[in-house]
Amino acid sequence: MMLKLKDFKIGFDNAYYGTGRRKESIARVWLVKGTDKQVVKVKESGKEYEMKQYLQRETLYSKVFYPLRLTGLEGRFGIYATVSGGGISGQAEAIMYGVAKAILKYNPDLRISLKKAGLLKRDAREKERKKYGLMKARKAYRWSKR
Q: For 42, 66, 67, 128, which has the most beta carbons within 10 A of its beta carbon?
C-alpha cells in the first residue's frame, strides 16, 4: 500500500519539523500527530515508501525510532521524511537526527534526555577528498626505488 503526502495532514497545529544530516544525506522530517504511519519520500526518484520497506534492515529501522522510544513518545506520532543524497545507512541516521530535533520542537523539556543520549550532536564525519597523485584520499601507488 502506497501512502502519499495527501494522506498526511501536515499543518502548523499538528506537525513538528526537524532537519537531519549525516555524511552526504539530508533528511527533512515531520512528526505528525494523529497517525502512526511512517513514510519516506526519496527526492531523486520522487517515490514514496513505507519506512520499514525502504530501510530494509531492522537495525536501521530501530535506530530511526530510538529518539521516540527514549522519550516515551513511540506510537503517538507518524513520521513523514524526505531524503536525498548518500546511502541508506546515512539516510537512516539523518532521519534519526531529524526526529530528535522535531521532538525538541514538540517539547523543549525533553532536551536533557536527548542530549544525554547524544542525539542532538551532529556527526560531522565526512568522506575525505581524493588528492592528486594518489589512488584515493590517502592510498598511494606502490613505490619502487628502481
A: 67
The rounded Cα 65 to chain-centroid distance in angstroms is 10
Go through the domains of the chain in sequence order and give each one's CATH number.
5-116 (3.30.230.10)
- What lies within 8 Å, CB to CB, of 139 at 6+ separation is none
**CB contact at 8 A, 1 and 38:** no
Pairwise CA distance, residues 134 & 141, whole Å: 6
Predicted local confidence at residue 83, as pLDDT: 95
Q: Can you tell me the mean pLDDT for 116-128? A: 92
Distance CA 48, CA 111 (A): 31
Low-confidence winner among 10-14, 71-75, 92-96 (lowest mean pLDDT): 10-14
Secondary structure class of 134 (helix, strand, coil): coil
The SS3 of residue 131 is coil
- The whole-number pLDDT of residue 1 equals 45
Strand 15-22 to 48-50 pairing: unpaired
